[in-house]
Amino acid sequence: MMMRMRHRERNADSPPEEMYSLEGGLPTAPDLPGRVVVASSADDVIDKLAAELVLHAETCIREFGDFHLALSGGSTPEPLYRRLMYDPDYRKLPWRRTHLWIVDERCVPRDDERSNYRMIHETIVEHADIPREQVHPIPAEEKGADLAYEKELRDTLGWRERGQDRLDYVLLGMGDDGHTASLFPRTEPLRERERLVRLNFAERAEPHERITMTFPMINTARFISVLVTGEKKASMLKRVAAGDATEEELPIRGVRPLEGQLVWYLDSAACGESLPPDGATP
Ligand code: 6PG
Fold this sequence. Notes:
By secondary structure, the protein is of the alpha/beta class. The chain has helices spanning 42-64, 78-86, 88-91, 116-125, 145-157, 215-218, 234-242, and strands spanning 3-8, 17-22, 35-39, 67-71, 98-102, 104-106, 135-136, 169-172, 197-201, 209-213, 223-228, 261-267.
């Protein structure tokens, strides 16, 4: 599918916002903060994300010697994780120099169907040459897991040069209620300003108890990507783009990198504009 790229200048202090839209004007990229990448299918947008992820990993390793990557769970990123393992273009991600963190975890045993780590372990850890000590699951079954994970983050990142003691890449998703990580609408950890990891309670999601990175952790990352695919997310994405909701109502609005970059990766279905299966514009 041919892509056409538009650049839109915002103001002198903010970087140019790049938007991609399909030839023929479909779909229109929603007006979201940061850079927005739209492709006709989930597979195509995963392709773009994976290519940029590998570049980031290589750049960080050249500069700092290692790469700190935090991944989300849920169903959306599963095909991305598989792709990273079987596609020769992306297999070259230097896992041996990568530290793998988990953005949020459900408080269930590690082998539970609902465990984010179980999914990430099955799709990535089992197939990548990542040293065991560089894999950092959240000990979500233990009391005080939030404090333990925060300590592990501080201790590990603390080895880096001052100023570089932050995550290099955080991959987020978005729930159809506008939550991200396990930061749910109108929950107290949304207002956290100090702690990097918190226990949260999701009234409307199962399981209710979650351990999650907070905005102070997420927003200091060098690069934040938000992957949203499928028509189920279209109406929420539209609300987020409308820009009139607070982060209390739609937590994803709280993703505001302090110095880093924010990039949204969307397929046309999430933009509310499904294309015919062959990708041809009607
Ligand atoms: C989780 C996630 C969460 C996820 C969204 C979207 O544990 O559920 O980390 O934040 O990204 O809920 O989930 P889906 O991709 O399943 O829609």
